[in-house]
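User: Just a sanity check before I run the rest of the batch. Below are the structure tokens for the first item. I only need the designed sequence back.
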């Protein structure tokens, strides 16, 4: 069925861009140049999608979006930007647009937009057989809550396509496992999956890691080296914590995504690459775009298919499932009988907010299995931060005595310091020296706090 799309914009430029992007996807395009007439057409016409042209010369685009969005049954809205400022693009998105496009948008990206608007079913032939909906285990991940079932369903749906994916979630929620699941279920599953930690290297070294370099291009370049883009050819490239890319590297990455060509540092020749890109972040790229710390055009390129992972505290019913599974796993490794948890212990674990998410839960269960393997885990055996979690969860209650005030303050400070330490370590790849420097503390003082709270830096297992 032909989809009717209304484009509100001024001049032939908007019309040409809209025609090039929309019409090849089997759409019928109507162009209205006047803003007021465009709003009237959007509210009164039978359009499946409304595209608003957002340019530096049309500051009224956010207002157009707002007016249409206030209708009782507004159509899906998309922003089409040409030479727009970052501020204008963000303002337009905040006005109610479901997506943003620019004049260089590919047909594949436009198809993804139409799909998210419910106007197109992406053709994905030869999808692999996978587990039916409702199973607790999926590609190594566990989850029975609705949020995780929706994540599993989305992975199954988009894995066979080659669209770029942006996985967002707090540290420890399992982002890397999602990346591996997408790659494994994709047509590229037998090809390499290569990962690049965007926090681990200085910008110059990171560019060499991604794009490669030629001999003599910089001090220490004693031989020509292929970058990850070339090595991952026909496979998947995983950019971990993409929010940490420098502005210069962001620009170079954008060019590679647009041209599918990569040039080594110090080289003049370009090489065609065929990769699927999956990026992860634990920070809000939208907020970074607003602050000018992340390029809006790169964000739109990365955010073709977004996947948002819920925090463990929001995964109702999953904590007992994960805790029991981890305890069985570690007990089997040690060759001891599984006794499980007491009701009080399990109830307390469900109260805890788990700032470190699944990684924190897994590590604590491993500690309990080592210390109390073969015994039933009691409330008294839980770490203090889990045992005392009720105090943090009930800080809104007014204390009745001065002693309760002091106790509540102490717990709040302890909880804040503990979260502060965990976040600093996560941002610096569990490197104590880098974490101390990033927060402005001496290493000895930082290390003393780690010992005080029983926090041990360790390699990341799942993101």
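Assistant: Here's the designed sequence for the first item:
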């Amino acid at each position: 069925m032909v989809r009717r799309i209304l484009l509100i914009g001024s001049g032939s430029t908007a019309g040409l861009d809209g025609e090039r992007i929309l019409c090849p996807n089997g759409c019928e395009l109507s162009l209205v140049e006047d803003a007021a007439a465009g709003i009237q057409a959007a509210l009164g016409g039978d359009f499946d999608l409304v595209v608003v042209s957002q340019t530096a010369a049309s500051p009224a685009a956010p207002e157009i979006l707002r007016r249409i969005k206030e209708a009782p049954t507004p159509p899906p809205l998309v922003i089409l930007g040409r030479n727009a400022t970052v501020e204008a693009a963000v303002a337009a998105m905040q006005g109610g647009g479901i997506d943003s496009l620019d004049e260089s948008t590919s047909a594949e990206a436009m198809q993804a937009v139409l799909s998210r608007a419910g106007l197109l079913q992406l053709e994905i032939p030869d999808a692999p057989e996978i587990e039916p909906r409702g199973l607790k285990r999926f590609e190594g991940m566990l989850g029975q809550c609705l949020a995780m079932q929706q994540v599993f369903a989305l992975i199954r749906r988009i894995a066979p396509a080659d669209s770029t994916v942006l996985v967002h979630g707090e540290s420890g929620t399992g982002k890397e496992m999602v990346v591996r699941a997408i790659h494994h279920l994709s047509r590229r599953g037998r090809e390499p999956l290569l990962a690049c930690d965007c926090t681990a290297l200085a910008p110059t070294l990171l560019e060499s890691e991604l794009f490669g370099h030629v001999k003599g291009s910089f001090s220490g370049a004693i031989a020509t080296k292929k970058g990850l883009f070339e090595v991952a050819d026909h496979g998947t490239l995983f950019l971990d914590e993409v929010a940490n890319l420098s502005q210069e590297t962001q620009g170079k990455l954008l060019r590679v995504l647009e041209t599918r060509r990569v040039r080594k540092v110090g080289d003049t020749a370009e090489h065609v690459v065929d990769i699927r890109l999956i990026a992860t972040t634990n920070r809000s790229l939208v907020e970074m775009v607003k602050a000018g710390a992340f390029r809006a055009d790169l964000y739109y390129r990365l955010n073709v298919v977004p996947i948002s992972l819920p925090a463990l505290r929001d995964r109702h019913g999953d904590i007992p499932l994960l805790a029991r599974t981890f305890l069985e796993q570690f007990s089997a490794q040690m060759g001891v009988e599984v006794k499980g948890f007491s009701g009080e212990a399990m109830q307390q674990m469900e109260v805890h907010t788990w700032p470190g998410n699944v990684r924190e839960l897994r590590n604590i269960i491993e500690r309990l299995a080592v210390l109390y393997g073969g015994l039933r885990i009691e409330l008294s055996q839980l770490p203090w931060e889990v045992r005392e979690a009720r105090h943090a969860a009930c800080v809104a209650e007014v204390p009745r005595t001065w002693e309760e005030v002091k106790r509540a303050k102490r717990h709040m400070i302890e909880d804040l310091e503990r979260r502060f330490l965990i976040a600093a370590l996560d941002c610096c790849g569990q490197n104590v020296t880098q974490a101390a420097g990033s927060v402005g503390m001496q290493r000895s003082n930082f290390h003393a706090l780690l010992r005080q709270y029983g926090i041990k830096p360790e390699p990341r297992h799942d993101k």
